[in-house]
Amino acid sequence: MYRIRFATGKDYENITNLLFRTDYEFFPALSKRWSVKAGVKKEFTDNLTDEERKRTLEFRTQYLGSKGKWIVAEDDSKIIGALVTILNPKEVDSIVVDPDYRRQGIASEMVSNALEFLFELDDKPVRTATWSTNQKSRSLFEKLGFKLVEKKLETRGGDERETVVYEIDKARYECQR
Questions:
Q1: CB–CB of 39/59 below 8 Å?
Q2: What pLDDT sits at residue 29?
């Protein structure tokens, strides 16, 4: 049975390993969005070795942890899911669940925990974003009460994609619980 909790610095390596295993499920891959070589956030980089991908994801995990708090799902000491809450502006980002543990409500529970934490801070709305083609994420957000508030074209790694932005306010969240 899994449990949801805030991550500690000791969890960062395990979060990085989970992101590494699922890296190419993101588009573009998370490791391509950040370049450790250049030390610049969101510089797209192709042809990274596995070691460079791992270092890049490690940097990303630590950097985002400094901007908010990671929430993890843990099963018998194994990190099986993670997401990060960004504090300013309030955001839920980088949601990932180990493929062997999907379809068990873990992502929903992590997002609900993230919303509870963020709404304890203040009443400002919380946002999240995904590609318009990511139907699984879109369904998750809509099921949890998020409303579509913006569509925008973004170019990442040379590809232009439509990003959809969702938002939920505290009153709507409380009605959905």
A1: no
A2: 57
**140, 176 contact by CB (below 8 A):** no
Report residue 52 as tokens. Answer: 């460079």
Kindly report, residue by residue over 106-141, the tens digit of the pLDDT: 999 999 999 999 999 999 999 999 888 889 999 999
Q: Which domain holds residue 67?
A: 2-176
Total number of domains constituting the chain:
1
Identity at 90, one-letter amino acid code: K
Alpha helices in the chain (DSSP H): 12-22, 30-33, 50-67, 106-121, 135-143, 170-176
Q: Token pair for residue 71?
A: 């929430």
CATH code of the domain in which 49 resides: 3.40.630.30
pLDDT of res. 76 = 92
Residue position matching structure tokens 């099921």: 143
